[in-house]
Amino acid sequence: MRTLLPTFVILTGLATAAAAAPPVIPPVTYPPLARTAATAEGFAPAGWTIEQRQSGDLNGDGRPDLVLVLRDTNAANIVDNSGLGRRRLNTNPRMLAVAYADAGGFRLVLQNHTLIPRETDPVLDDFIEGGGVSMGNGSFKVRLRRFASAGSWGVETVTYTFKPRGDLIEMIGYDRTSTQRNSGETRDVSINYVSGRMKITTGTISGRGERSVWRQAPGRRGLTLDQIGDGLDFDAEQASARSGAN
Questions:
Q1: Alpha helix locations (H) across the chain?
Q2: CA distance 89 to 85
Q3: End-to-end alpha-carbon separation of the chain, Å?
Q4: Among 9, 158, 185, 243, who pairs with 219 as Cys (CB 3.0-4.6 Å)?
């Protein structure tokens, strides 16, 4: 029996390590959306659903346009997790779509699957929980949030404001709020690309020692939604390096 003990210990250790291994994230493909549709539902590919929808006039023609968050419903993308965080992780991807009202229905002008990140880390909350898309005054907003139940004290909320220029969807506003739960420190960045001004406010959760400075907005006006990439990783304060991207 003594000769079998090392093998048993090794196998037990391997089993424990395997049990705590991160979940395996299945690969996904993003189907093309219909170029035109009679209703919002016509833009949802087979197996996808409309998770959020907003309706309002974006292009100034007096007719209600659409902003949609579409999500895959493939059961194979809901994975088990034996480590930290959620025990069941829905990794089904999302797509953002914008469609203008057109004769007989709607015409697609944007299909994007990078701004709203895919959920792949079980310790992170759903990125659009309590947020997502909203619309008003000829523009729409996308609000994202990053909160980790383990591994980070930071909480971030990012809100993008977009306004169409023809068929281009341009970013006209950017707001990021960052909070350190351990120290209570806060940092807010607000950029208005129409006025070309940026405001940075630092302080604490208690509101003490708050200080604001104004600067010229980095980058250039006219950055499009498709040029942003991952909406939580995009750093608007360093956007000048990316503002010439296609």
A1: 5-19
A2: 9
A3: 67
A4: 243
